[in-house]
Amino acid sequence: MRLEKCWFCSSTIYPGHGICFVRNDSKVFRFCRSKCHKNFKMKRNPRKVKWTRAYRVLHGKDASSDSVFQFERRRNRPERYNRHTAQSTLRAMKRVEDVRVRRAERLQLKRLSSKEHGRRHADKYELEQQLHLVRAVAPIPKENVENPRGSEQLKVAVSSSQQDRQASYA
Amino acid sequence: MIQVGTNLDITDNSGARVVKCVKVLDKTKQSIGYTGTLCIVSVKSLIRKQKSKVKKGHLYKAVVCETKKMGGRADGSQMSCSRNTAVLLSPQQTPLGSRIQGITPYELRMKKHTKLLSLSLANV
Question: Does the model's ipTM exceed the 0.95 cut?
């Protein structure tokens, strides 16, 4: 089983998927889906289309020159089958994948960290400059809560006792 | 889709440049050739007259390698090429040329033209 790479978006083509086009000079173009085939027919450059891997690598969105990518490379020389080699390769594949994922995450965090700094800066500026938009909330007086007719209640003098006030309402 | 009257480029070094399909050797009623189909062809033009193994106007057997029409393959994927090509064969169905300047599809393996696969630039 051979897994090919899409000529346009560089994703993996599994057996039974995609379209293969052979040009006049016997160059073989493989596409993972009709979307990539259509873009090729429209003569679009994958380096200028944002969702392709070529674009992402070119603009520093993905890692390109990492040693983990050296393992996943097309080799035209066929390897002689060796049981030990096959076993160690299978073990190494998992390890390489782990390392690749970890490095990708690290790159992602690195890319996000610059954005986080900018976001904090903007928040701080907003807080300093636009504080007048935030209305201060005063604590509600206790009397107001007990009596539903709160507006009348507020007119009562503060010095008067609780019993006097109750008598006046009755 | 190769049918009677289709012009095909020849990718081997037998000496023929363009051939015309005279008959498609298949058992279906429609008699349309795809990659790996045997045809009888007549030679229309030659690359060089002196060293050519074939003669203009003569009939030969040929096997279709590339077709412009997109066709499904055994594994479910699809393939199309930018031209129609074929390779000339002897009456015993052995290749006339000794080298193929083009691709050979793996459908030829199913038709047991394994000799052609070893002569070509790439098997697709």
Answer: no
